[in-house]
Inverse folding.
C-alpha cells in the first residue's frame, strides 16, 4: 500500500480555503493510506528534496471544483536541493537556480519568493495550491529522482569528503549541449566543480562522492561504483554496489594516460589505448580504431572528444551504450586537442568533425559520417559559461 502524507491545515487559514482543500481531498488520496504530519515535522523538508515533474495544473473554484485544465508544456521540473537552492529545468533544456524555503510549520513552501500551500506531500507525490485572481491553481507533481541513496553513497551536491578526484580545470564550463536542434543534454556541478548531475534526453544521472569512492546513480539506484586512487583517477569500478559484478580495472602510464583497461563480466574485454603528443590516437593496439586531431585545445569542463565520438567505447559494456564517466576525466588525462577524424575498420566508417568559431559562449560542431553504416550529418551546439 502506498502512503500519502497529508499536511494538517493551518488553524489561521480562512474558511473558504479550508473548504477548497477539503473538497479536493478525494481527488488526491486515490485510496492510498494517509498520514497526518504534525506541526513542525522535520520529515517534510527531507521528503521535498529531489526532482519533481508537473503532471497536471488545474484551475479550481473555492469549492474545489475543477474549472479548467491548464497547459503544462512549458512548465519546469523542480529540483529542491539541501542547500536551499531550487533548480527550474525547462523542456528546452534551459535551467535557472532560485531559492526555496519551507515555513517553520511546514505548511507552505516558497519558491523564488512565491509561496505555495502544501496540500499533499508523499514519497512520490507533491500537490501545491496557490490563490490566483478569483480562483485557485492546483499543481500535482510526481517525483523524478531523490537524493536519498540505497546505502551510503554520499549526498547529491555534498562536498564534505576528501575524494582525490579532481575535475578538469576548465575556464569554460559546459552547461548544455543541443544535438540536431532537438536533443538536449545538461550539466550541473557541485561547489568543488565536480559533475553532480548529467541529464540526457531520457535520463538523469547523478554523482555522489565519498572519501575514496564515486557513485553513479539513475532512478535512485547505483549504476556503477568507482574506486579512486591517489592519482585522482579510477583504479577499479564495478556494476551497482556489488564489487564482484562487472569489474573494470584501470592502469595508467607515466604520463597519467590510461594505458590498459580490463573489463570482466560474463566475458572479458580489454583495451590498450595508444597515444601520441598527448592525444589518444588508437583505441586498440591493432590500429583498428584511429583518431586524428585539430590544433584546437580540448579545454572545456566536459571532454567534448568523448561526447561526440567513441573514444571511450569501453563504457558501452559498463552500463547503457553511452559515455558518462569519460566525459568528466575519471580515466586519466584526456586528449589535449579536439578531434578531426575518426576511422573504424570494424564498421568501415569515417567520421569527420568540423569545429566552428566560438561566439557568445557557444561552440558549433558538425559531424559527418560516411561508410558502411547509414551516412549522416549531425550538428552540436555547446553552451558554456566563463568562470
Amino acid at each position: 500500500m502506498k502512503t500519502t502524507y497529508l499536511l494538517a491545515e493551518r488553524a489561521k487559514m480562512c474558511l473558504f480555503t479550508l473548504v477548497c482543500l477539503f473538497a479536493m481531498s478525494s481527488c488526491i488520496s486515490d485510496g492510498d493510506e494517509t498520514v497526518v504530519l504534525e506541526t513542525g515535522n522535520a520529515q517534510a523538508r527531507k521528503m521535498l528534496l529531489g526532482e519533481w515533474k508537473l503532471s497536471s495544473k488545474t484551475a479550481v473554484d473555492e469549492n474545489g471544483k475543477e474549472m479548467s485544465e491548464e497547459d503544462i508544456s512549458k512548465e519546469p521540473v523542480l529540483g529542491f536541493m539541501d542547500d536551499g537552492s531550487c533548480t527550474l529545468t525547462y523542456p528546452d533544456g534551459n535551467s535557472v537556480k532560485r531559492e526555496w524555503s519551507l515555513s517553520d510549520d511546514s505548511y507552505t513552501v516558497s519558491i523564488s519568493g512565491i509561496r505555495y500551500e502544501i496540500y499533499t506531500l508523499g514519497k512520490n507525490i507533491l500537490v501545491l495550491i496557490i490563490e490566483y485572481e478569483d480562483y485557485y491553481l492546483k499543481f500535482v507533481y510526481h517525483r523524478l529522482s531523490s537524493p536519498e541513496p540505497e546505502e551510503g553513497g554520499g549526498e547529491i551536491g555534498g562536498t564534505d569528503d576528501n575524494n582525490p578526484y579532481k575535475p578538469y580545470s576548465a575556464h569554460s564550463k559546459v552547461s548544455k549541449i543541443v544535438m540536431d536542434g532537438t536533443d538536449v543534454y545538461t550539466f550541473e556541478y557541485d561547489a568543488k566543480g565536480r559533475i553532480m548531475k548529467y541529464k540526457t534526453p531520457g535520463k538523469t544521472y547523478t554523482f555522489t562522492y565519498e572519501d575514496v569512492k564515486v557513485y553513479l546513480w539513475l532512478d535512485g539506484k547505483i549504476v556503477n561504483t568507482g574506486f579512486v586512487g591517489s592519482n585522482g583517477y579510477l583504479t577499479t569500478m564495478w556494476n551497482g554496489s556489488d564489487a564482484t559484478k562487472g569489474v573494470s580495472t584501470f592502469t595508467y602510464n607515466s604520463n597519467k594516460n590510461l594505458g590498459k583497461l580490463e573489463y570482466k563480466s560474463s566475458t572479458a574485454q580489454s583495451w590498450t589505448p595508444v597515444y601520441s603528443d598527448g592525444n589518444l590516437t588508437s583505441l586498440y593496439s591493432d590500429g583498428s580504431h584511429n583518431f586524428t586531431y585539430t590544433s584546437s585545445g580540448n579545454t572545456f569542463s566536459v571532454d567534448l572528444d568523448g561526447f561526440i565520438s567513441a573514444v571511450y567505447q569501453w563504457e558501452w559494456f559498463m552500463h547503457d551504450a553511452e559515455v558518462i564517466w569519460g566525459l568528466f576525466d575519471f580515466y586519466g588525462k584526456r586528449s589535449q586537442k579536439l578531434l578531426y577524424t575518426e576511422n573504424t575498420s570494424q564498421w568501415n566508417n569515417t567520421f569527420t568533425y568540423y569545429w566552428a568559431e566560438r561566439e557568445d559562449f557557444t561552440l558549433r560542431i558538425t559531424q559527418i559520417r560516411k561508410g558502411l553504416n547509414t551516412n549522416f550529418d549531425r550538428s552540436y551546439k555547446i553552451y558554456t559559461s566563463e568562470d
Remarks:
- The two ends are 49 Å apart (CA to CA).
- The helical segments are 15-29, 43-48, 304-308.
